[in-house]
Amino acid sequence: MDVAALAVVAVVAIAAGAVIGFVARGFWANQAIKAAQEKAARIVAEARTQQKDLILEAKDEKLRLSQQAEEEARQKRGELSALERRLLQRDEQLDQRTDMLEQRDRKLLERERELDRAREETARLRQEQIAVLERVSGLSVDDAKAMLLDAVREEAEQDAVRLVRAIEREARDGAAERAREVIVTAMQRVAADHTAEHTVTAVHLPSDEMKGRIIGREGRNIRALEQATGVDLIIDDTPETVVLSGFDPVRREIARVALTKLIQDGRIHPGRIEEVVNKARAEVDLVIRQAGEQAAYEAGVPGLPPDLLKLLGRLKYRTSYGQNVLQHCLETSRVAAIIAAELGADVTAAKMGGLLHDIGKAVDHEVEGPHAAIGAQIAQRHSLPFKVVNGIAAHHQEVEYACVEAPIVQVADAISASRPGARGESTETYVKRLEDLQAIAESFGGVERSFAVQAGREVRILVRPDEIDDLSAGRLARDIVKKIEDSLTYPGQIKVTVIRETRAVEYAK
Question: What distance in Å separates the CA atoms of residue 315 and residue 250, rounded to the nearest whole number?
């Protein structure tokens, strides 16, 4: 076989292989298409089956929801029916009440008409009675009213006096006991000494020869000392004593300290006097500041301004009736704090008001006016609380009380000033106060005699029984008390007793 034949055979073989491959590929493609078609048919069948199931489930759910909605609608219809029945019942009840009210209104109208007729009848009868009474008594209506008013007024006054006396008796029975407990508790807890420190105005000398050295040549030393201190030196026949006379207690203390230093040093001449007085002034200022701080600390009143503490310390050298004013202020603060605590008042305000109530005495020789008003102005200028300012201003009743702490400060001040041994009083002042008490009592009508007893703490008044009755005696006592309060200044309190007695005397013959 030649090459050409082999080539033809090869070409035919290749062509046959290609035809066979093409046929085989077409067969497999047909098989794949058939498989895909079958799978698609199965999927469609399954989808139709599932669609039928879902439709059935949807129908069941729709049926269930329809039944549930019908049940709820049936329940709502039942509730609405019940509510409608209740509303109908209420409407019926309201109609019934309306009918009853209309009946009551008709009855009330009838009663009002009856009352109007009764009032008219009563007025007519009253006019007839008044006419009859006027004709019988011979008095007009105005005259009868005046007589009746006078009688009623007199009876009302007597009843008022009886009521006042009963109220006063009850108030004394209750309040006096409570006040006594509070004040006694305060005095017991303070337990202050019965003597107070007095300001020393006399300087002791080692010998009478020192008087000549103090005077100096042609009196230059004593003039320099008086000019530097502002006080007068009194050198008399009193052995080994020089008296310092000055209105300002601080200046008097500076002079005492300076003179004591000069006596101890022995060098007394104008130049040395000026130097020692300056040192003494610095020492006294330091003592004043420390005294004010110590008093505020002991009273439990922190935070006071430095200027106020300095004024408070100046009271260390001030006395009132022999009582040291700074010790008196400290004692008043303690008593006021205890009373305020017992009564439930502001303890801090009471303590501060008691400590500063006499602060005006530190400058009352420099500023015009009563020391209570001066002290209130000082406290107000330093922006202290209103309760403290009112307590200072009102502790001598020169202004009205504006808070409960103000009378507490006044009571504490009276307790500190009037306790035994607190103050001294000259015989002339004592006798004058007794005479003033008796003169005030005898200035009222109906008073026969008066007696000031118990060192002026009680006034007993004898009245004429034909001019003063039992009811008028109470009014007289109150009037005398008011006049004593307005006219006199005194520590503590004064008891006024009005005595009315009737004596019947006969003789057997």
Answer: 9
The SS3 of residue 459 is: strand
CA–CA distance, 371 with 466 (Å, rounded to integer): 46
Between CA 267 and CA 114 the distance in angstroms is 115
**In sequence order, what are the beta bridge partners of 320?**
323
pLDDT tens-place string over residues 272-325 = 888 888 998 898 899 989 988 998 898 888 888 999 899 888 888 887 766 788
CA–CA dist 244, 230 (Å, integer) = 10
3-class SS of residue 497: strand
Q: 306 near 366, Cβ under 8 Å?
A: no
| CA of residue 221 relative to chain centroid, distance | 58
Contacts 24+ apart (CB under 8 A), 295-300: 295/326, 295/329, 295/330, 295/355, 296/355, 298/330, 299/330, 299/333, 299/334, 299/337, 299/351, 299/352, 299/354, 299/355, 300/337, 300/351
CB 371 within 8 A of CB 379: no
From 302, 288, 324, 305, select the one nearest 192 (Cα to Cα). Answer: 324
Under 8 Å between Cβ of 375 and 355: no
